[in-house]
Amino acid sequence: MIRRVLTxxxxxxxxxxxxxxxxxxxxxxxxxxxxRIVTSAVFFxxxxxxxxxxxxxxxxxxxxxxxxxxxxxxxxLRPLPPRVEGLALxxxxxxxxxxxxxxxxxxxxxxxxxxxxxxMGDVRGHGLAAIGTVAAVLGSFREAAHDEPELPLVLRRLExxxxxxxxxxxxxxxxxxxxxxxxxxxxxxxxxxxxLEIDRDxxxxxxxxxxxxxxxxxxxxxxxxxxxxxxxxxxxxxxxDLPVLGCGRLLPGEALALHTDGMEDARDAAGTFFPLRxxxxxxxxxxxxxPQGVIRALYAQLLRHTxxxxxxxxxxxxxxxxxxxxxPQQREAACAARPAMELSGRRRDERRR
Length: 353
Fold this sequence. Notes:
Helix 1 runs antiparallel to helix 2 (33-76) and helix 6 packs antiparallel against helix 7. By secondary structure, this protein is of the alpha+beta class. The strands form two sheets. Strands 1-2-11-10-7-8 form a six-stranded antiparallel β-sheet. It has a five-stranded antiparallel β-sheet with strand order 3-4-5-6-9, with helices on one face. The N and C termini lie far apart (92 Å). It is elongated, with a radius of gyration of 31 Å. It is built from eight helices and eleven strands.
């Protein structure tokens, strides 16, 4: 209340001072040079005060708007915890839109009864127009990851959520058409999506719709697989059969680096692409890989390479396996010895009988 009174009252006080001086002060009506200088100084002081007051009010409102926007962005693309089910995490994002921390990139990591599930995606375009699509896809994933027992079912939930969001957006943008016009920009929007599931033994299952494959960091950086991905969501309907791709195991101490194409498509002034794989190899050369260290090193190299903000959003997510597990040969030996022990126990009981 006091701030509102000051905001409205101070300009009125400054204006009253100027009017009072002009009407009531005899000096304001004199024509001498000294009187004119004094009058000019009074009005200059009043004008300067009003300008500084308006500037301070605008800066205060801008600061409040940024705080609200930052809180909303963190709710949408919330900060990841440092650990999830024995996996160390770190993530970073760089928006191509000035003043924004969220654009067209999305990621999330959730621990479920089916394993740790990860999504990394990239909406066509960036900025405010892509944030609604990011919210639709992320909201659907956060529910489907817990509800659906299989990755293909999660992906189909994301497809339905995206289609529903695009239909609603088309109706809002073109209410007279009653739907999505054939040549509307919204009808050409799509999302690349990478879904990963990491089970308790480190086994990695994946479904990929047009997204770059992650890199496995283990002393060096190499693509997790070279399989061809499916088309992005929104371009074509998903096929009836969605085979889940097994991508081996993430062993203790190894890490995965997931990224959007804004990382590898960034160019310098000469048009040279950012050497993402070489940068990841340098960051992962000394084990154990530090997720936070990889994030800092990659973004520092990216900004040095481009010399400016990238032209596309760039997101990076690093997961390191910090779990401990029984070596496979010991586990297999234990499983083989258990039937033999049970058989010897049965023979012992038969002899006693």
